[in-house]
Description:
Strand content: 35-45%
Radius of gyration: 21 Å
CATH topology: Methanol Dehydrogenase, Chain A
Number of domains: 1
Amino acid sequence: MFPWSRREFLRGMGTTAAAASMWPYLPAQGLPVAGPSDWARFAYDLHNTRFNSREATLNTGNVGRLQPKWSHEIGAPIQTSPTVVGDTLFIGAWDGKYHALDAETGEPKWSYDAGVTPEPRWQLRTMKSTAQYDRGRIYFGTGEGDLNCVDAATGQAVWKTRMDPGLRITSSPNIYGNRVFVGTSGGNAQIVCVDAETGAIRWKFKIVPDREEGGGSAWTSPAVDEEYNIVYTVTGNPRSFNPPGPLLFSDSILANDLETGELLWHDQIRASDPFNMDFSCHPMIFDAVSPGKRGARRQCVGAGNKSAFFTWDRYTGELLWRVMLTSPTGPWWNSTAVAYNKVYLVSNERVTDPGSTDRSESVTAALHAYTGEIVWWRHNDSMNRAPVCVANGVFYQSLENGSLEAYDAATGKQLWQSSIPSTSRGGIVIANGNLYTANGEGGLPTEPKNRYSVFAYSIDGR
Length: 462
């Protein structure tokens, strides 16, 4: 009578629930006016591609004309990516606040104090979670362990949900329907699903068993497969100093049923990890097309840790390929994107020679999404510890020395370069014909505060 599998049934119910969940969100005065190519969440879409497929203004022909448009001083380190919806940009900083700025002028609209306790050593209040805009609200986490929901028009709190004691949120949320998915770090790391309307916790999945030492932290944004109702999360090491392992589900990718939290499959790269080889790059969902066999496709999920980039069959968990471009420390802090049947990543190697200062090597490469073969690669003048992105045929990256760069996504040819005063830990986003970024490295009190700003670039600075 009902010839559906459990997976098909849940998939159908998920679609219905997503549609039904729209009704509580009524239009409000002062909401951001949507733009044609907004960047509304950390990794752009549910699949975490960091590929703005709707950008139609900036391209390979005119990106070389990018000039500064405006800058706005925040006065505290910024390690979140800008969230841009039409005429409004949202960004969090180490002053413990989320700020809303006019995306065209940089003028402030409002700021929201998230109530984060200052870090004792530097008197800074850490904020690393990039906000997602969804139906008139923004959602983000804090180092205090709170998931915040804030009215996007006014900056007023809607609700705040605290995670279990000892947990922090450095990851960025991903929202599907009426569910907010977020990873946590700290003593007993978890993947948590929260009701977007009320803030009530729907389910929790413990990454590691109860223990004070922590380990297995989910540092970055989960990816959502809306077709088959799966949420993918990657995890950190078992903490090399207390002890190095083994510890199940550390250094792993996890596939959970987004309705229930049930674990569907996982792959643990290493159970013991004294070398801190975390998965610090967000998982990305993509379909890969064979370069040789006509019509052959792979349904993939991929993620980078500090040794290599790994690609799995997203439904069976079979490891399809992995590529190491440099010796560890490899890809860092979400320095990956996927577009045009290519995986883009930056891989780093920091070398310490006895009796001398550290030196580093960094390369940027495009890999074939089906095989992992290198399509193009280039050497960087500095390391990268920031998210990259792709839009309208152009690949963008920011380096540790403050360099902002654009390359032809097909060939790797450099098209544009500029610089900001210090490293951009939040990376670059492209929205509505503009490039947005910010700077600030936490824990550097010697830097003048006025070096911490949000920057906008546009064609000829207009």
